[in-house]
Amino acid sequence: MSTIGTVSFYTLGCKLNYSETSAIGRQFEAAGYREVPFTEGADVVVINTCSVTEFADRKCRNVVRRALGGNAGAKVVVVGCYAQLKPEEIADIEGVDLVLGAAEKFRILDYIDGITGGAGKGMVRAGEVKEADTFVSSFSFGDRTRSFLKVQDGCSYNCSFCTIPLARGASRSSTVEQIVSDAEAIAARGVKEIVLTGVNIGDFGNGTQVIEDKRPRKEALFVDLARALDGVEGINRFRISSIEPNLCTDEVIDFVAGSRRFAPHFHMPLQSGNNKQLAQMRRRYRRELYAERVDHIRRVMPHACIGVDLIVGFPGETEADFLETYRFVQELDVTYFHVFTYSERANTPAAEMEGAVPLAERRRRNKMLGTLSEKKRRAFYARHRGETRPVLLERGKEDGLLHGFTDNYIKVEFPADDAWINHLVDLELAGEVRGAGNGMVLEGRALVEQ
User: Fold this and answer.
1) pTM attached to this predicted model
2) Which CATH number does the domain 388-446 belong to among 2.60.220, 3.30.70, 2.40.50, 2.60.40?
3) Of 4, 247, 325, 425, which residue is 20 to 30 A from 122 by alpha carbon distance?
């Protein structure tokens, strides 16, 4: 098929964004466009944005400017969460031609021909977020070993600090049948691992059916989806990207423990280990429930990796409150933290709360939890040294040295050539723990001669 132009993409933010960028990319491919690397002179540049924090907003603006520098004359299109929340602000950035909101981004090809380019403010097509009420199937492809598969979108929780409901709309899901079909399509491409993504994937199945007494109920639950995916041939691993503790039920945990393909890896947002802050954040659990979830995982999967999201510096968080959180997570048998420094977001209840924590203090608390996370991850790696675990091998940064992750998310380096990429290999975890943070690694030793 002859091409009608070139397109490049830049994705900011979460795994969900990557799955959606790939879906948009396939639309361009089907229309006859050829994808080229970012900043290499594309006719159309699509930037998929995040807006979880103020830093994410700033990064988006910088990427737009980079796109303009490397793609002279290109039509620049900005989509994603930032585009929904602040479309006029983005349209005012010199060089931006089109801004598409949550309900419009998957109709991007309908707008491309209408872009005139040149000087002046960009065209905005961003309606009310309530118009984003349909689910669009998306999965990423490009990485030979891993694909991000969207199973749910939007959120109806309305936590007091979060803009996601404003950027993506209410919670909605695909069907079990469609997601299984997507997983089979991914398997047919030779991908070995699928990461299930969404905004609140534990809320999967929010689509309802009406039974005889007229009360609506979910057509399926997340655990029903997981059971169906467990039978998909060709996929060695499924990972759950993140799941709320109130939705990570004992049934879900026990299913993963007995699953053939679901990895023993949970990432559960906690946000605060202080019940006062949890109430102010409008979270739907108390810290006692979180501790129960961790205990249950450890009982049925002692080897499981457990990640935790935390927010520091939420309005009204005193030093005593923070230390209560610190002590709580210090005692939890978890693996690592993702620590976020609270930033005020317009149109959220938290932005109007009293008791703002000085930015320097927020950063200090972030650093303290980051140091604790480092110690926990290092201890987790060391605890599993000497074990043999399956590792899905990927391309490394050095020739002759591959890396990969075990089922329980330990990063491993393994000396081998590229022919081993995308192979699941049983490796002995050996040597000393090296590196830090996401770069922490153990050496892998083959059980048989290569």
Assistant:
1) 0.90
2) 2.40.50
3) 4
